[in-house]
């Protein structure tokens, strides 16, 4: 599956494609045996009158993808259900989940930018790009992306994991935090780790990234090495933190998240020597 996030103007009779239709934070999906699929134009033809707003958000395998929304009282067509986007992570194809995230982000951005942030005038959707502009003062807004770092701090055969007050559930994860204006990723990694657990790190290396559409983050993953300090938690953010080996891991985040990928990378690369 190959997705290209290009702008597609939406006409009265849209091209045949995939429809990412949300009801609140729930996405309309088809369940076929063990597969979770995105409905096609034919599948959702009966819903067209109920769509609140529609955006063309790109092409998946060459076919157009549309993001749209229905009111709460609209029920799913036969054979389909509205399912929470978060719960679909790991169930939808990985590339399709990224498109669903982009659809959710674009719809959220569109709702939050109906009025100009500069002059307060009513904004309009542009016809040549995915953007809203203000006819009165010309201000243009695009769907926003907020970068955040996420980092696996390693000390010998141990990884630093913490529990945040924000987590729902009892799992531990690697540290994460939003990038400040004027800050590089590397400095953000050092600052976040220092602020949250009073640990110094170096040898920061890029690991990978994951768009996180709740509501519009981009998680940028790094690995780093312990360079000094004793754990002292910032209890506004963190409730518990500690060093764990691959054999003493606590409950960790679910499959499909970059946090989980970082922890799996640690386990693969820091297996304790087996005694013979
Ligand atoms: Zn304006």
What is the arithmetic mean of pLDDT?
94
Helix count, per DSSP?
3
Contiguous uncertain segments of 5+ residues = none
Bound heterogens, unique: zinc ion
SS-based class: alpha+beta
Ends distance: 45 Å
Please outline the major beta sheet.
Answer: 7 strands, mixed
Q: Spell out the helices and strands N to C.
A: EEEEEEEHEEEEEEHEEEH
Number of strands: 16
Computed Rg: 22 Å
Q: In one word, what is the shape?
A: globular
Which band does the percent of strand residues land in? 25-35%
Helix content: 10-25%
3D structure, described in words:
The chain is α+β, with helices and mostly antiparallel strands and 276 residues long. It has helices at residues 94-112, 185-197, 258-269, and strands spanning 3-4, 18-23, 26-32, 35-37, 54-60, 63-69, 80-84, 124-125, 132-133, 140-141, 146-155, 158-164, 175-178, 200-212, 217-228, 238-244. The strands form three sheets. Strands 1, 2, 3, 4, 5, 6 and 7 form a seven-stranded mixed β-sheet that branches. Strands 11, 12, 13, 14, 15 and 16 form a six-stranded mixed β-sheet that branches. A three-stranded antiparallel β-sheet has the order 8-9-10, with no helix packed on it. The longest helix is centred in the middle third of the chain and has 19 residues, at 94-112. The protein is globular. It starts with a strand and ends in a 7-residue tail after the last helix. 31% of the residues are buried. The chain binds zinc ion. Zinc ion (ZN) is lined by residues 116, 118-119, 121, 134, 136-137, 139.
